[in-house]
Amino acid sequence: MQTLKNLREKIKTLETERANLMAEIEKLKKAAESRVNALESEVNMLREEVKSLRELLGYVEEKEK
Q1: Cα torsion 10, 11, 12, 13: sign
Q2: What are phi and psi of 59, to 5 degrees?
């Protein structure tokens, strides 16, 4: 059986680790959202470029499957 002092120390350590992990999760979620936004913007720009090049070359737009 663990002593009361050991249990308190363990609880304190685990609560600190939990708080640190929660903060890291939030930081990683924000980084992921930022990356998604950047990729969406890039994909939209590339789609527009493809559309413009097809129009320039006189290609008929392919139907979506």
Answers
A1: positive
A2: -75, 145
Is the pLDDT reported for residue 45 higher than 80? yes
Pick the more confident residue, 2 or 7.
7
d(CA 1, CA 17): 23
Cα dihedral 39/40/44/49 (nearest 10): 0
State pTM to two decimals: 0.68
Residues 6+ apart with CB under 8 A from 61: 51, 54
Q: How far apart are CA 44 and CA 24, in angstroms?
A: 30
Residue carrying structure tokens 């930022």: 34
Structure tokens at 10: 């363990």
How is residue 8 written in tokens? 């308190």
